[in-house]
TrEMBL record:
This is FAD-dependent tricarballylate dehydrogenase TcuA. Its cofactor is FAD. It holds the Pfam family FAD_binding_2. Keywords: FAD, Flavoprotein, Oxidoreductase. The keyword Signal does not apply. NCBIfam families: CobZ_N-term, PRK08274.1. Residues 6-433 form the FAD-dependent oxidoreductase 2 FAD-binding domain.
Length: 462
C-alpha cells in the first residue's frame, strides 16, 4: 500500500460499512479490508432482509409502535436472560435513530412481507434484501472517499501493550502490513471453520450447514484471543436455524430457511416428535430449531404438513416433496411408514377445536394429552396431498467473540486497548448469550458499527 490510512476496518458487511461511513464523515481516511472477492462482498449481510427497530410511533415502513421495554422483553425471552442488559438497551434505544440514518445512506425500505413473520410493527424490510443494502452502502462509502481492498485476508493484528501497531494481510499472493491509527474489527464469527465448530460442538458439527459466507472463519478473532484480548460468549452458542436439508454446505442464505414449522408436525428419523412446533410466533422461535435438530439422530428432522397449510408460509427455494398418502411420503423421506402414521394419528387425535386458528398470532389452538404438546396452530393433518421437507442445522453466526464496552472498545485483562474497536457478529455475543430475535443481528451491527466508527475516528483525529 502506498497510501497512509487513519483507520483500517476489517470486514466488508453491514457493521464494517456502518463504521467506515461514520468514520469517513468524521474526516478520517478509511480502508476496508474485505477477505471475499468483490462479487461475494458483504458477509452475512447479503442474506439479511430486515432490521428490528424500536419506535415510539409509525416510522418509515413500520406501523404503530414498538417500545424499548417490549423490545427488551422479547430479547430476554429468546436469550433466557443471558444478555448484557446495558449493551442490549443501548442497541435497542439507538435503533430508532438508525432507521432514518440508513435511509440517508442509501437504504430503501418496503412494507413487511406476509406469512408467518408477523413483523410489520417490529422489523423494517429492505427493498431488494440485504444485497441491495450492502451495494447501497458501498456506493455511499465510495462517495465518502473510503477505499476498499478485496481478497485481502487479514492474518494478524500486532498488539503491543495497549495498542494495535500493525495490521498484516495477504492480497494477490503477497503479504502486506499497514499501521493505521485505529482499527475496527467487523469480520464476523468462526462458523465457516468446520474444525473449530467441531471442537466446540463435537462430531455433530460435521453435519451442519453454513447459511452465510464461507469467508467467516474467525482468523482475526482467534489471533486476538491468542494475544489476550478479552472474549465474551460460549463457543457452542450460535444463531442456528433449521433449514432445508437440500441447501448447499455454504452460502445458501435466507432462501433455504423453512418457515413452515408452526403449521406442521416435526419428527426425527424415527418418526417421533421431539418439541412443541407451536411454542411462539416464528420470529421468536425459529432460531432455536437449529439446535433442536442438531440434538436429533444424524442431526436431521422432517417436517410434515398437509394441503391446507401449504400457502401459510414463505416457501424454501426448493419445492417440498409431495404425496397423496402419509405412507407414500414416508417412503420418499426414508421414514418408517407405520411409525409416522402412528405419530400423526396420535397428534390428530389430540387436536381439539380449531375454529380460532389464526396463522399470524398466538391462537391457543392446542393439543391435549400428548407429549410434547403443540400449544398453538394445532390442526389435524388430514387433507391430502401431504408435503414434506428435510431439516438440517444451518449455522448463521457464532457467539464467541470480542468483549466490548458501550463505546465498542476492546480490552485485555489489564485495561482498554486504545485503538481497537469491534462491531457486528464478532462482538454480538456481548448481547446474545443464546437464542436469537429476527432482525437483531442487523441492529447490533448498525448500532455498534456506527459507535465504533465514531470512536475510531475520534481517536485517529486527536
Amino acid at each position: 500500500m502506498t497510501k497512509s490510512y487513519d483507520i483500517a476496518v476489517i470486514g466488508g458487511g453491514n457493521a464494517a460499512l456502518c463504521a467506515a461511513m461514520t468514520a469517513a464523515e468524521a474526516g478520517a481516511k478509511v480502508l476496508i479490508l474485505e477477505t471475499a472477492p468483490k462479487t461475494y462482498r458483504g458477509g452475512n449481510s447479503r442474506h439479511t432482509r430486515n432490521f428490528r427497530c424500536m419506535h415510539t410511533g409509525p416510522l418509515g415502513p413500520l406501523v404503530e409502535d414498538y417500545s424499548e421495554e417490549e423490545y427488551l422483553a422479547d430479547l430476554l425471552k429468546v436469550t433466557g436472560g443471558k444478555t448484557d442488559k446495558d449493551l442490549a438497551r443501548l442497541a435497542i434505544h439507538t435503533s430508532e435513530e438508525c432507521l432514518p440514518w440508513m435511509q440517508e445512506h442509501g437504504v430503501r425500505f418496503q412494507p413487511s412481507l406476509s406469512g408467518t413473520l408477523s413483523l410489520a410493527r417490529t422489523n423494517a424490510f429492505f427493498m431488494g434484501g440485504g444485497k441491495s443494502l450492502v451495494n447501497a452502502y458501498y456506493r455511499t462509502a465510495e462517495k465518502l472517499g473510503v477505499d476498499v481492498l478485496y481478497e485481502a485476508a487479514v492474518t494478524h493484528l500486532e498488539l503491543e501493550g495497549d495498542q494495535i501497531t500493525r495490521v498484516v494481510y495477504t492480497c494477490e499472493g503477497q503479504m502486506h502490513s499497514i499501521s493505521p491509527k485505529s482499527v475496527v474489527v467487523a469480520s464476523g464469527g468462526f462458523q465457516a471453520d468446520t474444525d473449530w465448530l467441531t471442537r466446540a460442538w463435537g462430531p455433530a458439527a460435521q453435519n451442519f450447514l453454513i447459511r452465510g459466507t464461507p469467508y467467516n472463519r474467525g482468523v482475526v478473532l482467534a489471533d486476538l484471543l491468542d494475544q489476550g484480548v478479552q472474549s465474551v460468549g460460549d463457543a457452542d452458542q450460535c444463531h442456528a436455524v433449521a433449514i432445508d436439508g437440500r441447501a448447499p454446505k455454504y452460502d445458501g442464505g435466507i432462501v433455504t430457511r423453512l418457515d413452515c414449522v408452526p403449521f406442521s408436525v416435526v419428527v426425527n428419523k424415527n418418526a417421533e416428535r421431539f418439541y412443541d412446533e407451536g411454542e411462539d410466533v416464528w420470529p421468536k422461535r425459529y432460531a432455536i430449531w437449529g439446535r433442536l435438530v442438531a440434538a436429533q439422530p444424524d442431526q436431521v428432522g422432517y417436517v410434515i404438513i398437509d394441503a391446507k397449510s401449504l400457502e401459510l408460509f414463505m416457501p424454501s427455494v426448493f419445492p417440498p416433496l409431495k404425496a397423496d398418502t402419509l405412507e407414500e411420503l414416508a417412503g420418499m423421506m426414508d421414514l418408517p411408514a407405520d411409525k409416522l402414521r402412528q405419530t400423526v394419528d396420535r397428534f390428530n387425535a389430540a387436536c381439539g377445536d380449531t375454529s380460532k386458528f389464526h396463522p399470524t398470532e398466538l391462537d391457543g389452538v392446542a393439543t391435549s394429552g400428548i407429549t410434547p404438546p403443540k400449544t398453538n396452530w394445532a390442526r389435524p393433518l388430514t387433507e391430502p396431498p401431504f408435503y414434506g421437507y428435510t431439516l438440517r442445522t444451518g449455522v448463521t453466526f457464532t457467539y464467541l467473540g470480542l468483549k466490548v464496552d458501550r463505546n465498542a472498545q476492546c480490552s485485555t485483562k489489564t485495561g482498554l486497548i486504545r485503538n481497537l474497536w469491534a462491531a457486528g457478529e464478532t462482538m454480538a455475543g456481548s448481547i446474545l448469550g443464546q437464542g436469537y430475535l429476527a432482525g437483531f443481528g442487523m441492529t447490533i451491527g448498525t448500532v455498534f458499527g456506527r459507535i465504533a466508527g465514531r470512536e475510531a475516528a475520534a481517536y485517529a483525529n486527536k
